[in-house]
Write a sequence for this structure.
């Protein structure tokens, strides 16, 4: 099972993340079958990431004035679409949204358009969010959130292959254009980005490319599914100051650990080796070689950019 559908969160964690009380979660589960957690050997309720996302959507729907009994049976696509509709109506009526809600609204609308397979609408929403929020906030809070939502939907079976491919193509175009628009200093640090063998999801890598370009890096995207030797060879030819690897697929984490170890051995000591992506947090630090940095946020590239410039001087 993927991490997205694996029951691993106790009810206290779910309450903290969703803003619901444990009593409310239990009531929604018992009366309306809103989610169906499993029980651990000790009888503890355990919830998955998919359960978390569903409970948060249902909470937001009830905050918009709907009863839990009327929305608990909706499938994920219907629930998200209804939330987008309710928020649009609230904005039209002049009801202010909080800062968090405004960011969430962009992501919800983009995901609803993904489900509707409206590629023109999706691209339009992404560019409006980019223009409204500015590049850094757009990448972290909208593009990154949307990619995570798409990954969850794919893992849970809520997205069809056609929907996932359509959204991936649109997001890829937008992120590639952001890189093309970026103004890069001639003496800026150089970054090579790609994924290791069998990791065919390249959008996380594209997100890193866009964030790095906006921080002044000269970026070369190699694409997905490359052996460490090829990545290291490209980094040497391009005189890269850093290599960034995206790890998205949970099942590939053990192989990624081996690939990162091989890549670290092949790269010059001065070259930073970075790793990010939805599954990067599952990498065990004790198994990673020294000198591998796990990116926890895109803005970490700003600090590394300054460090790389100093190294090259």
């Amino acid at each position: 099972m993927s991490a997205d559908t694996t029951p691993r969160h106790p009810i206290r964690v779910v309450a903290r993340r969703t803003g619901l009380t444990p009593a409310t979660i239990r009531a929604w589960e018992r009366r309306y079958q809103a989610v169906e957690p499993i029980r651990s050997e000790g009888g503890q309720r355990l919830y998955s990431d998919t359960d978390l996302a569903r409970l948060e959507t249902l909470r937001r729907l009830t905050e918009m004035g709907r009863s839990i009994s009327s929305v608990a049976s909706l499938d994920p696509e219907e629930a998200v679409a209804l939330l987008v509709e309710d928020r649009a109506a609230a904005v039209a009526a002049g009801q202010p949204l909080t800062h968090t809600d405004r960011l969430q609204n962009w992501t919800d609308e983009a995901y609803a358009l993904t489900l509707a397979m409206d590629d023109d609408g999706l691209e339009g929403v992404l560019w409006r969010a980019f223009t409204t929020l500015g590049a850094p906030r757009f990448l972290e809070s909208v593009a990154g959130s949307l990619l995570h939502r798409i990954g969850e939907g794919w893992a849970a079976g809520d997205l069809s292959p056609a929907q996932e491919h359509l959204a991936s193509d649109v997001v890829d175009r937008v992120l590639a254009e952001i890189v093309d628009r970026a103004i890069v200093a001639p003496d800026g640090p150089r970054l090579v980005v790609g994924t290791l063998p069998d990791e065919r999801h390249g959008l996380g890598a594209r997100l890193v490319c866009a964030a790095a370009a906006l921080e002044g890096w000269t970026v070369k995207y190699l694409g997905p599914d490359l052996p460490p030797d090829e990545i290291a060879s490209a980094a040497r030819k391009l005189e890269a100051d850093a290599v960034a690897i995206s790890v998205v697929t949970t099942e590939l984490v053990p192989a990624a650990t081996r690939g990162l170890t091989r890549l670290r051995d092949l790269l010059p000591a001065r070259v930073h080796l970075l790793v990010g992506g939805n599954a990067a947090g599952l990498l065990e630090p004790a198994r990673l070689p020294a000198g591998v940095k796990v990116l926890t946020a895109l803005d970490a590239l700003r600090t590394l950019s300054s460090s790389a410039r100093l190294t090259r001087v």
About this structure: The chain is about 55% helix and 10% strand.
